[in-house]
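Now for a typical sample entry:
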Amino acid sequence: MKLDLNCDLGEGEAWERTRSLLRWITSASLACGGHAGDLASMRQAVRLARRQGVRIGAHPGAPDRAEFGRATLQLSPDELEFLLLQQVGTLERVARLEGVRLHHVKLHGALYHASESDEALARGYVQAARRWWPQCLLYVKAGGRVERLARRLAVRAWGEIFADRAYQDDGTLVPRGRPGAVLHDPARARQRVELYQERGELETESGRRIAVRARTICVHSDTPSAPELARAVSLALARRRG
């Protein structure tokens, strides 16, 4: 199975960095006015991705820019749906004017984790996506609550793993505040991808291996070595396909 390589873009990074990342990825999740992004950045990111032949998705986040959408939050399913309509709906219109269709939706930061921990929020998210963007895939935690629910509700979803984040033994990500939570070494990212391709496993921070089924791999654009990580992962994927 051909694996997708995705990256969260249009989050205020330098445009040269955006261009560098677009050389290596196959899907871009674009910030759409919540944790980052505005109309100008959405237009520019869509145009750059289109020129590179990279698929475009929406990356809605909590509107707390001081915390980059990563602070713990509480919201109801109705509030989440309203947020999605504002952010995904805006990017969808911008993309349409540029002649591009949205490929997927991927929640950012606190929204991503909240939908995994709250059954009502997960259901509200999947139902909202099915109602408003039935043509779009959902990029979700591989093997997680949202993926299982999407399967039951006949919503297409791609399970996601992270090339630049450390995992705990229970399959959750190591909290960002802990040492070693973010991986910076391209060689380690390559090894992670190669292990997954060969065995369908991820190695945790303790050295344990856990089985997982994924369709897409993420590199965060704000990881300091993101372009080098994306290059290493892309080349590993290409070698496997070759």
